Amino acid sequence: MEPKIGIVICGLQNSRQFVSNAYIQSVRYSKGLPVVLPLVRSDHLLEEYIALCDGFLFCGGEDITPLLFGQEPKDGIGRTDITLDLFQIRLMKKILKTTKPVFSICRGMQIFNVACGGTICQDTMLQSGNILNHMQHSDTKSDVSHRITTRRGSHLKRCIGSCLYVNSFHHQVIETIGQGLTACAHASDKTVEALELSEHPFALGVQWHPECMYRTSSEMRELFSEFIFHCAS
Known about the structure:
Blueprint: E1 4-8, E2 11-13, E3 16-18, H1 21-29, E4 33-37, H2 43-52, E5 55-58, H3 82-96, E6 102-105, H4 107-115, E7 120-121, E8 146-150, H5 155-160, E9 163-166, E10 173-174, E11 181-187, E12 192-197, E13 203-206, H6 218-232
Parallel strand pairs: 1-4, 1-5, 5-6, 6-13
Antiparallel strand pairs: 2-3, 7-10, 8-9, 8-11, 11-12, 12-13
Helix pairs in contact: 3-4
C-alpha cells in the first residue's frame, strides 16, 4: 500500500486554502498517496492528521510573522498570516515528537527552524557582506540559480551528493539554527540551504524548491524517493 503523505496547505487566498500542484505531483510520481491537510484550529484534529498520515510535506509560501520568533517587523518583510503560521508551527511541533518523516521546503524549512526555536533573517538586504540574490527571475521555476555544498556525513549528501546547482525563490534566510538542528548544506555566501534534525529517522528541510525541479533533476527525484521510502518503512 502506498504511504499516505500529508501535504500541509501552502496558504490562504480569497477564503480558499491551496496547495500548488507540483507538490502533489512530486509525491504521486514518487509513489506516495497525497493527502492535502487544510488549516484547522483543533488540537484533536491535528492528532488525527498525525495518526492518519505516514509522513508530512511542508510547502513553500509567504513570510512568517516575526513575533513568532521573537522579533518585530523590519524593512523588507513580506506578507504574513499569523493564523496559518500558528497552525503550521503547532503541527510541526507535534509531528517532531513522533518518528514520522517530515520533509519541509522553502517556507516549510523556515517553519521547521522556528518550531525548533530558531530565528529568521527577515530579508537578505539586512545582511552584511556579499550576499547572493536568492530570488531568481527565470523563464521557468526548474531553472537553476546557484550552487550548494552539502555537509560531509549528512543524510542529504548521501541523497544528492557533495554539491549541486539548485533553484532559489526566497528573500528570507535562516538566522539562528533551532535546537537539535544541523545545517547540512550552504550556498557560497554561507546561507543555510538545508537543515536536518539529529536523532530523527528523516526530518529534513531544504531552502530551494525540489518539486519544481522534479522532472529535470535526478537528484530531486532521489530526494523525494528517499522521503517516501522512509514514510513506507
